[in-house]
Every structure is written in C-alpha cells, then in structure tokens.
From TrEMBL:
Residues 27-49 are annotated as: Disordered. It comes from the Eukaryota. InterPro entries: DYW_dom, E_motif, PPR_At4g14850-like_plant, PPR_rpt, TPR-like_helical_dom_sf. GO terms for molecular function: RNA binding; zinc ion binding. This is DYW domain-containing protein. Residues 655-748 form the DYW domain. Belongs to the PPR family. PCMP-H subfamily.
DNA sequence: CTAGGGTTAG
C-alpha cells in the first residue's frame, strides 16, 4: 500500500489503546453476494422524461440531469441511463466533475461497471469523491478485490482519501478478510484519531465483528461521536453475529431510549435476534413497533416476523400474516417451508412433528404449482424436511434439480443433502454426496463423521476425521462426539482415550456430558462395567439421566439385573423429565414382575406431569407417508396382522423369544403383559406394511416416535434375515439398520 | 456528486 496522505476529518476523541491490538484471527464468514437484477424496461413516465431531455435543443443546466438519472437508477433502466448520458455529452457537460461522478455511481448501481469505468477514465480531473465512487461501485458489484486495487491507484495518484473512502475500503477488507490492509488502514486511523467519525467507526465496528471481537466492536461503537441509525444497526447485528443476541437486544433498547428511530434494516436485525433467542415476547413488541413506525407492509420485515412466529410455534399468527400479505416473494415461501421444517425439531411429540413435515412439503407443492422456481434456501429446507420424515424417495427427487440448477455447489445445500441421505439410512449415497462436494465446512465434515459412526462404520468415521485434520479444518466438540462414539462402537478403548486427550490438550476443548457418555457407553458395550464406574469416579462426574440410562441398558443386556436396578434407583432420584426414561424403567420392572415398583414409577410420572407416550411409526412408500399407531386392541385378521403373526411364528425357531413389554398408548392399561402386547407395536406393523407393499430388494424405512423396545429390536433383526430385506428404523434416539439378522447399533441402541 | 446496516439454510 502506498503511504497515506493526511486526511481532512475533524477529530477530538482519543482512541483506546485496545484498538492498537488488531488481532485478527480471520474467521471466514461467507458474505452473501448480490445477484444483479435483469435490466428493467422503463415506466412510461420515465420514458417520457428521458425523451423530453433532448427535445428542442433546450439548453439545460447540468443540475437538471440529476433527478432523471436518479429515477433511471431506481428503475434499474440501463437504456434510460445510456440515453441521458448521450444527451449530457451532446450538451457539453461530459467533463462536469459532479455530474460525471454521479453517473459513475448510477452505472455502478445498474450493475454496469464497464460503463462506470469508462466515464471515470474520461474524467479530465479526479477528486477524492470521484475515486470513492468508483471504489464503492466495485464493492457494490461484489468485486472488493478490484476496489482495493483502485484504492491503491488513488493513493499513487496522490489523492487524499476522505473518511468516506476509508470507511468504504475498510468494508472491502472486511468482506475480503484482508486483515493486512485493514491493519494498515487501522494504524493510520489510530494515528490520525479518526475512529470517532461515523463512516469510519461504523466500518471498524463491522470489521471487529467479523474478527470475532465483539468487545472491540462495541467499544469502537461507543467512541463514535455522532452515532446514527447505521452505527446502532451495525452494533446490534455485531452482537447477533457473535452469538450474543441478548446484548444486541439490550443495545436496541438503549437505542430506543436514546431517541434514535430504527429503520427497516435495524428492525430486521432485531427480529433476527429475537428469532435466535426464541424471544416471542420481544418479537411481538417489535412487531407492534414496526406497525407504529409505518413498516407494516414491508415485505422483508413481514417475512422475518412470519418466520419468527413459525419458529416460536405460533402457527395461527404466522398464517394470518401469510394470507394478509399483499405481495409474496420467494423468501416468503422459503420462510414458510423453513419455519415448518424448524417446527419439526421443536414439536412436543412425534406426531405433530410429522404433521409439520407434511405441511412443509405441501407448501412447497403449492409454490411449485404457482410456477415459482425454488432456490438454494428452498432446497436446503426440503432436504431437512425429508430427513426428518425419513422420506428417501422424496429427498432423491430433489437431488437432481440441485445438480441441474447448480445449487448443489453451495456448501450448505450439499451438506443438507449428505445429512438427508444419512438420516434416511442410506450411508452409501451420503458418502457419495460427501465425496462429490467441492468445498467442505466444519459442519460437512462433522456430519459425515457422525453419519459413519451412527451406521456403526467406525473405521470410515475415523478415516474422515483424519482427512479433516489433514486439510486443516479445526474440529469442535460435536466432531469429537462423533469420533468418540465411533471408537466406542468399535470397542477401541486406547484410541478413544487418545482422541479424548487430543481433544483436551491439542484443541483445548473441555469435555461435556456427551463425550463422557461415549466413553461410558464403550465400557458398557465391552462388559467392563466396573471400569465405567471407575471412570465416573475418576472424572468426578455426577451422572445425568442420559448416562444412567446407558448404564441401565448396558447392565440389562449383559444380564446384570441387580446393577441395573441399582442404577435405576439412582436415576429415579434425579426425577427425570424425559418420558422415555420412564418407559425404560417401566419395562424393566414389568419384565421382572416388580409390580410395586411399576406403580411407584407410574405415580412419579403423574407427579412429574410427564407426557403420555404415544407410539407412532411412519413409512413412506411412493411419496406417500403411511402412519401406524400402537393399539392393544386385537386387530381384524387382515393381511397385515396375518403376515405379522406368520413372521412371529417363523421367527420363534430362529431364537426369537417374545419379551414382555408394557402397553403404552396413553390410556392407563392393565399391568398384565402378554406377548401379544408387543406384537402390535407400531414399528412391527409399519415394517409388515412395507413388506406387503414393496417388492424385490427394496429397503424398508420406518420412522418411529419413541425409542425401540428390545422385543421389536430382536424381532426385526430376525425379520431382516427371514425376508432378506434391509430394514432401517429411525427411532427417537438413533438409527437402526437391520441387515442379515444384525443391527448397526450392535444391540446397544438405547433400547427401552 | 462519494458510505455505512439486513430476511429465509446445515
């Protein structure tokens, strides 16, 4: 960078010495790029004014051209600008600095940088404003690297940058992650005490935010002498971008108290904070404010509010907005689809989750019927919906369009695709999609590692992890959950602890319960239960519900019933809130015939107001989803129960011993359990339905609302053997892939 | 005449 001449900006504030330490661990944040709009045709009014400009050789003042150029710019009419440009030349204003500078700006805003550049090059004299126009033009056209080049040319030409120039160039650095240049400019700003200027201060605030230094971003904001709406908006979104939404909301309140009126951009930022915080109250207050300030029909704001309502589960409010909107954009449809997709994970029970998924797909169909082309946001939401529904066929149908449209090259879409294949149990398609990705983020790598681990393919999981390290992607704690669970499933004790140490020492990640749970699960699988307890003692762990459940399930399957009951008592002392935990305990006591304990647990459930457990299963066949609910009533002798009974009979000689499990369907049942109780668990029926309605070697995919019970698990293992079919069941805890009589969870899938 | 902030996604 050429040396900077002094800048003419008044300044009084001293910079905090903190500012001198611009530590920039650049966290690559992909900035969304603009999509140039198609040039528009002019409105009839505009056409008239453009043609009247040259009429009758009237001699116009140069100032007359500004409003009409502005109108052309607003209407994005390149041809309008061009014909006005011609008139300007004809009238002899072609060298007027102010007018030509404005024209540079106008061409830039119409995505015509070539013309903007030509106008600039023809200027006989260029002042700082002209240079700044060109620089900002390149930034507007998503070419920050060219903007920085022009900035250097400007300095070489000996033109002194203004505060605007510095602000613009700093923003270019921010979007380029060019922290070297930023540092030089920063030094210059510090030396000349310019940080209190709002154009510079705002840019610094964004820069620090991008450097993940929220404290600095805030302190630079505090030092801005005249904080305007944009300063406030910048600091509010800086808080949001750095994971401190509460601080952002507080800043927004401060802004209001200070009497600064937010504009629609501030309000969108605030709504996005409310969204991540799930702050429905604050959100609806902002909604009222929006209406009060007259932004009630702003499309972008309405989209955000609608999404917020959906994400908070206020479907009726969201729908009211949706149907009340006078115009709807693709973003509106996407927000609806994404909102319903989001509600799947927030749903209280599996049935409503399933209904949300169906609704999301129906909204997409409506959008499709209206002829709207989906974009990358649409596709990533759709993939996420399909994975929740375990609707492989649907998901596959969206794969090809993402290739054709090129959206698959987006890393988020591609990751969503990998995830979809994984969650639908198709690990081969998942890994194929992963290998075809051109760029991978931490999340892509982590998804693939977790996917292999979930399918019991530990070696592949660890292989991917090593590849990830090799290319220099830094794992996070979720990555290590995947790695440790891979080791745990394969019983690789030494490796597990090696990775555990690596996580703590090399990556400075503090272990959380999920990590401990993997290691404990590993000891339990290896029937080294003493070591599991030793580990708990050594790490001073206070086991949570989850860890006790692992211990119980492990002790049970190893036949160590006394230990299992001991663990169960510990678990009960925690007064669990999770209904499935109670289901595990109930089943345990039922199979041991300990009826007193059964009623004790039932009483605890009532006291804890735990949700009733509703056993649903779904199977998607030819894009239609069929659902089954557990029913203890004896079914009619239809085709389905006939097949089921037949399978049960054929399974018995192969070692299937129907275990007792409790009947749970919401109503209190008699405590007596018989084998017929588990015979009609919903997943058995869904699998039987799949066997009847598909043929050949088609894999059967079922989703289930609760955890699988041990009885169904061992039954379906045998079914996969008897029928030579692969059966994939995703229950509330994990994925079970049954193949040739084995399950990918190796019988430690947290069965109840 | 030049700037600066923003919706929906894994």
């Amino acid at each position: 960078m050429a040396s900077l001449p002094p800048v003419v900006v008044a300044n009084t504030l001293k910079l905090d010495s903190e500012f001198r330490k611009l530590s920039a661990p650049p966290l690559p944040l992909e900035k969304r790029s603009y999509t140039p709009k198609e040039p528009n045709s002019m409105s009839s009014d505009l056409k008239e004014s453009v043609s009247s400009v040259g009429e009758g050789n009237r001699k116009l003042e140069s100032s007359h051209y500004f409003p009409i150029l502005q109108e052309c710019m607003l209407q994005n009419s390149v041809s309008g600008v061009e014909s006005v440009h011609c008139q300007i030349i004809k009238s002899g204003f072609g060298e007027e600095l102010f007018l030509m500078t404005f024209l540079v700006n106008v061409y830039a805003k119409c995505w015509e940088m070539g013309s903007a550049r030509k106008v600039f090059d023809n200027l006989p004299k260029r002042n700082a404003v002209a240079w700044t126009s060109l620089i900002s033009g390149y930034i507007y056209n998503s070419r920050p690297e060219l903007a920085v080049g022009i900035f250097n040319e400007m300095l070489e030409a000996g033109v002194c940058p203004t505060n605007y120039t510095l602000g613009v160039v700093l923003n270019a650095c921010t979007s380029l992650c060019d922290f070297n240049l930023a540092k030089q400019i920063h030094g210059y700003i510090v030396k000349h005490d310019l940080a209190c200027d709002s154009s510079i201060g705002n840019a610094l605030c964004s820069l620090y935010s991008r450097c993940r230094n929220l404290a600095l971003a805030i302190s630079v904001f505090e030092n801005i002498e005249e904080k305007d709406v944009i300063s406030w908006t910048a600091v509010v979104s800086a808080c949001g971008d750095n994971g401190n939404s509460a601080k952002g909301l507080a800043m927004f309140v401060k802004m209001l108290v200070g009497g600064v009126e937010p504009n629609e951009i501030t309000l969108t930022s605030v709504l996005s904070l409310c969204c991540t915080m799930q702050a429905l109250d604050a959100g609806s207050q902002v909604h009222s404010l929006i209406i009060k300030l007259g932004y009630g029909s702003d499309l972008r704001l309405t989209n955000s509010i609608m999404y917020l309502y959906l994400k908070s589960g206020c479907i009726s409010e969201a729908k009211k907005l949706f149907f009340g909107m006078s115009s709807i954009s693709l973003v509106t449809w996407n927000a609806m689809i994404a909102g319903y997709a989001e509600m799947i994970s927030l749903a209280e029970d599996a049935l409503s989750a399933y209904l949300c998924g169906i609704e999301a797909l129906q909204i997409f169909q409506q959008m499709n019927r209206l002829g709207l082309r989906p974009d990358l946001y649409t596709f990533s939401s759709l993939f996420s919906v399909c994975s929740s529904l375990v609707a492989l066929e649907q998901g596959e149908q969206f794969h090809a369009p993402t290739i054709k449209t090129g959206f698959l090259s987006d890393v988020i879409v591609a990751t969503a695709l990998v995830n979809m294949y994984n969650k639908c149990g198709s690990i081969n398609q998942a890994s194929k999609a992963f290998l075809e990705m051109s760029t991978r983020t931490l999340i892509s790598w982590t998804s693939m590692i977790t996917a292999f681990a979930q399918h019991g393919l530990s070696e592949q999981a660890l292989h991917v992890f090593e590849d990830m390290r090799r290319v220099g992607v830094r794992p996070n704690k979720i990555t290590f959950v995947g790695v440790l669970s891979a080791c745990s499933q394969a019983g690789m004790v030494d490796q597990a602890f090696a990775y555990y140490e690596m996580m703590k020492n090399e990556y400075r990640i503090n272990p959380v319960m999920d990590h401990y749970a993997c290691l404990i699960d590993m000891f339990v699988r290896l029937d080294r239960i003493d070591e599991a307890f030793d580990f708990i003692k050594k790490e001073n762990l206070i086991p949570n519900e989850f860890i006790w459940s692992i211990l119980i399930a492990g002790c049970r399957s190893k036949g160590k019933l006394e230990l299992a009951f001991h663990a169960a008592e510990q678990l009960l002392e925690l007064e669990p809130k999770d209904s499935e935990t109670y289901l595990l305990l109930l089943n345990m006591y039922v199979s041991a015939g300990r009826w007193k304990d059964v009623s004790r647990v039932r009483k605890m459930m009532r006291d804890a107001k735990v949700d009733k457990i509703v056993d649903w299963s779904w199977i998607s066949i030819q894009n239609k989803v069929h659902s089954f609910k557990f029913s203890s009533k004896k079914h009619h002798q239809d085709e389905l129960t006939e097949l089921l009974d037949d399978l049960i009979e054929r399974a018995k000689p192969l070692g299937y011993k129907a275990e007792t499990a409790l009947e749970i369907d919401g109503e209190e049942k008699e405590e007596a359990t018989t084998t017929s109780a588990t015979a009609h668990h919903s997943e058995k029926m869904a699998v039987a339905f799949g066997l009847i309605n598909t043929s050949g070697k088609v894999e059967i995919r079922v989703t289930k609302s609760t955890g699988m019970c041990r009885d169904c698990h061992s039954f379906i293992k045998i079914v996969s053997l008897l029928t030579s079919r692969t059966v994939i069941i995703r229950d509330s805890k994990r994925l079970h892939k049954f193949h040739k009589g084995e399950c990918s969870c190796k019988d430690f899938g947290g069965l109840v």
